[in-house]
UniProtKB/TrEMBL annotation:
The keyword Signal applies. Pfam families: Polysacc_deac_1. One of its GO terms (biological process) is carbohydrate metabolic process. GO terms for molecular function: hydrolase activity, acting on carbon-nitrogen (but not peptide) bonds. This is NodB homology domain-containing protein. Residues 1-19 form the signal peptide. The keyword Zinc does not apply. Keywords: Signal. It comes from Chlorella vulgaris. Residues 45-168 form the NodB homology domain.
Length: 354
């Protein structure tokens, strides 16, 4: 990520921390948004974990070092959602296709990884559509590329309109604060939502530029899987726990492992909204002073989470499929989740051969 881009991301995160609520009419709305689908009580709600990696995808991305050889208590493998940008020489089609076939979800992260706020519609459409087309050229069926994340998390209504018109299933770019919006701490968080009813959370940053929403927005069938800001242990950390984009270094007094465990424990003992582990390749390669390498800490967290009952790592499209047909933990099977499905698809897709 270029230095200017890193600085822009840092400014976005700082601006969003102090944003104020703007949309909710009453407390009952917030309560509905933090309740599990189907009215499930927390003890009957699966604790899903969303592991995502942004940017170029190549053999050096290291995600396989996190997932390979690790399985759930029911034998399901650990998948991830890869938001892939097609910046020249950063993405290798062979790696994209290999992960797709092994059950990872491949999602769009634009063609050139440039900002898409304050630019003309033609540019936005080309960035998303052409980035998706090049993933298709890698061998991933277009029908399986259903999600998008905006570079630097810069989003506005015009971008969501393009995403909606392209027929994608979800966006995962809007940050959700743990105070001043719908969520009230990491144990009482907003669940993903269909934007057909609008955007009920406070997604407008103080500069009114990097994250922009309108009360008039309605995008039926387009889901938002938020970028929840982990607030335990010196947060907020929307991505890359403990990391600063200004110095490109670990700045917390706490290890990434402790940050992930503290926030996960709050989620697991709370309303069990999906737990986010959103990272970049540079974070996976980071070796913070005084702590184990980030990659090793993430491996340790995955093992920590997998040891607990009712926990599943799933892709974003599998999460939305479950939310559309919620099944309690005591009735959940690998087939219902789409365990091992090619492209991280939901239960309607064929399973990988064993």
């Amino acid at each position: 990520m270029p230095a200017a881009a890193v600085a822009a991301t840092a400014l976005l995160l700082l601006a969003h921390v102090v944003a104020q609520p703007w949309y909710l009419d009453n407390a009952s709305q917030a309560s509905n948004l933090t309740s599990a689908p189907g009215g499930l009580m927390p003890e009957r709600t699966p604790q899903f974990i969303l592991l995502t990696v942004d940017d170029g995808l190549n053999p050096g991305t290291l995600i396989r070092s996190v997932t390979d050889g690790r399985t759930h208590l029911d034998g399901c493998p650990v998948p991830a959602t890869m938001f892939v940008s097609m910046v020249r020489n950063t993405t290798k089609c062979s790696t994209v296709l290999e992960l797709y076939r092994q059950g990872f979800e491949i999602a769009a992260h634009t063609l050139t990884h440039k900002r898409m706020v304050g630019v003309d519609r033609e540019f936005v459409e080309r960035e998303i559509a052409e980035g998706r087309r090049q993933l298709v050229e890698c061998g991933v069926p277009e029908a399986d590329i259903v999600g998008v994340r905006a570079p630097f998390l810069w989003v506005d209504p015009a971008l969501r309109q393009v995403v909606h018109e392209l027929g994608l299933l979800y966006d995962s770019s809007i940050m959700e604060s743990m105070n001043g919006s719908v969520s009230n701490g990491f144990g009482d968080r907003l669940w993903p939502f269909d934007m057909g009813g609008g955007i009920p959370i406070n997604c407008t940053s103080d500069d009114r530029y990097t994250q922009i929403c309108s009360e008039e927005e309605r995008w039926p069938g387009l889901w938002e899987v938020p970028v929840w800001q982990q607030n335990e242990l010196d947060g907020p950390y929307p991505m890359d726990p403990g990391f600063s984009y200004e110095c490109m270094c670990h700045i917390s007094n706490h290890s990434a492992l402790d940050i992930l465990k503290a926030n996960f424990d709050a989620a697991y003992s709370g309303n069990r909204a999906p737990f986010n582990v959103y990272v970049h390749p540079f974070w996976l390669k980071n070796k913070p002073d005084g702590f184990d390498p980030s990659l090793q800490q993430l491996q340790q967290f995955v093992e920590y989470a997998l040891a607990k009952p009712d926990v599943w790592f799933i892709t974003m499209r599998q999460l939305i499929a479950w939310m559309q047909n919620p099944v309690p933990v005591d009735e959940l099977t690998p087939e219902v989740l789409g365990c091992g499905n090619i492209g991280g698809a939901g239960p309607a897709q064929p399973l990988l051969a064993t």
